[in-house]
TrEMBL record:
Ranges annotated as spanning the membrane: 280-299
Keywords: Membrane, Signal, Transmembrane, Transmembrane helix
UniProt-listed InterPro entries: DUF4114, EF_Hand_1_Ca_BS
Ranges of residues in domain DUF4114: 158-260
Coiled coil: none
Keyword Transmembrane: yes
Name used for this protein in its record: DUF4114 domain-containing protein
Keyword NADP included in the entry's annotation: no
Cited PROSITE patterns: EF_HAND_1 (PS00018)
Length: 312
């Protein structure tokens, strides 16, 4: 069955490649870096394959973007992917007031329901670029390895700006090119900002949030608010017929998993995103220690001592 699916992918990709015009993605240079195994484990445990994402990570009280509290360089490292498509991934930056008083309908000038990259680029204060023209890992239609890292923009991003990401569905056409249909909206592009996505109503604004139109799960790896785990869902979550091959979303948000970080390391601090929970084993250990502490405190309650109890 897997062989048949892979063969189908190749045939369809050939048809798409032959019928689409190629657009140079100008992807940045990839440098492979070492990522701590604990971070990789946490990222994969937080976004497991074929399992609906933790609803807490899609809580619309959290923002699906990062705001810089100081001038910084931003980097993205590939962790893993679980997609059936050959997707392309990029970033966009925006100013605090870029989307003020704009609805999705205002940006969607051709009223297609899909915001193209050309339409996004027309918004004042917005800049975008591709990061990975082929988001497929080695052995699965691409060459990406865990730790393959790129810089988001080739320059420092100014304090006060925000950065988010987009994924163009099945847009890769070979080499460092993508289908030019991403410029017209004929290929679906999913954005970090909920109101830009195909599932969003045309009346939605920047502040409008809908869990049904969210395509990124974004969370700090711990309370230091430095390293960010980001997962993407690459399928229209409402209308399977709009997806290539009419595939329904499995809601796992691990079609692409990354680590996003900055230099200086604390430039994302204060961004309103979720924080990953402790791994289950760590939670158990902490729970045992806390329980032990309570037992010790109870036993010692009537026997005061000058010794300090070890607390966690």
């Amino acid at each position: 069955m897997i062989v048949l699916i892979n063969a189908l992918r190749v045939i369809i990709l050939m048809l798409v490649t032959s019928s689409a015009n190629a657009l140079n993605a100008n992807s940045p240079t990839i440098i492979n870096t070492t990522i701590e195994p604990a971070f990789i484990t946490l990222a994969k445990d937080s976004l497991p394959e074929s399992t609906a994402v933790d609803p807490a990570f899609l809580n619309t009280d959290f923002n699906p973007y990062l705001t810089l509290n100081q001038d910084a360089n931003v980097y993205m490292s590939f962790i893993d992917e679980g997609a059936g498509y050959k997707n392309s991934l990029g970033y966009f930056t925006f100013e605090n007031n870029s989307f003020t008083d704009l609805t999705k309908g205002d940006i969607d000038t051709d009223s297609s329901g899909i915001i193209s990259l050309s339409e996004l680029d027309a918004v004042n204060g917005v800049d975008y670029g591709f990061l990975y023209s082929n988001l497929s890992k080695s052995g699965s239609g691409g060459s990406l390895l865990t730790g393959d890292t790129v810089q988001v923009t080739d320059a420092t991003i100014s304090a006060g700006k925000s950065v988010s990401f987009f994924l163009s569905q099945n847009a890769y056409t070979g080499g460092d090119t993508v289908s030019d249909a991403v410029l017209t909206g004929n290929d679906q592009t999913f954005y970090g900002l909920d109101f830009l996505n195909p599932e969003a109503d045309f009346t939605y604004e920047f502040g409008s949030s809908s869990s049904n139109s969210r395509h990124t799960a974004m969370l700090f790896s711990d309370e230091t608010e430095q390293n960010v785990i980001m997962g993407f869902e690459d399928l229209n979550r409402v209308d399977p017929n709009s997806n290539d091959w009419n595939i329904a979303s499995d809601e796992d948000f691990n079609d692409a998993i990354f680590m996003v970080y900055s230099d200086p390391v604390d430039a994302f601090g204060g961004s309103n995103i979720a924080t990953a929970p402790l791994p289950l084993m760590t939670q158990s250990i902490v729970g045992i220690i806390m329980l032990s502490g309570l037992i010790v405190i109870t036993c010692k309650k009537e026997k005061p001592s000058n010794r300090r109890l070890l607390t966690t």
